[in-house]
Design a protein that fits this description.
Order of helices and strands: EHEHH
Strand content: 15-25%
Low-confidence stretches: none
Distance between the termini: 42 Å
Strand order of the largest sheet: 1-2
Mean pLDDT: 84
Length: about 60
C-alpha cells in the first residue's frame, strides 16, 4: 500500500488567485518538510456543493436548472 504521508489541509478564501494558491501550497509543504523532517503532503480542501435546497431536489429537478 502506498504511504500517503502526513496530510495538511489548506483552505483558501475566494480572493486568493488559483496561481498563487499552488505556489503557496508548494512553499508551505517544502517548509514543513524541512522544519519537521517528516513526509508532509499539503492538500487543498475541496468544497462540495453545500446547497441545502439542491440536496432536497431530485436529479430531474437539478437538471432543469
Amino acid at each position: 500500500m502506498d504511504n500517503q504521508g502526513i496530510q495538511v489541509v489548506i483552505q483558501f478564501p475566494e480572493q486568493v488567485p488559483l496561481d498563487a494558491q499552488g505556489s503557496a501550497m508548494l512553499w508551505f509543504e517544502h517548509t514543513l518538510r524541512i522544519l519537521t523532517k517528516l513526509d508532509v503532503r499539503v492538500v487543498k480542501h475541496l468544497k462540495g456543493d453545500d446547497s441545502k435546497l439542491r440536496a432536497l431536489m431530485s436529479i430531474k429537478q437539478r437538471e432543469a436548472l
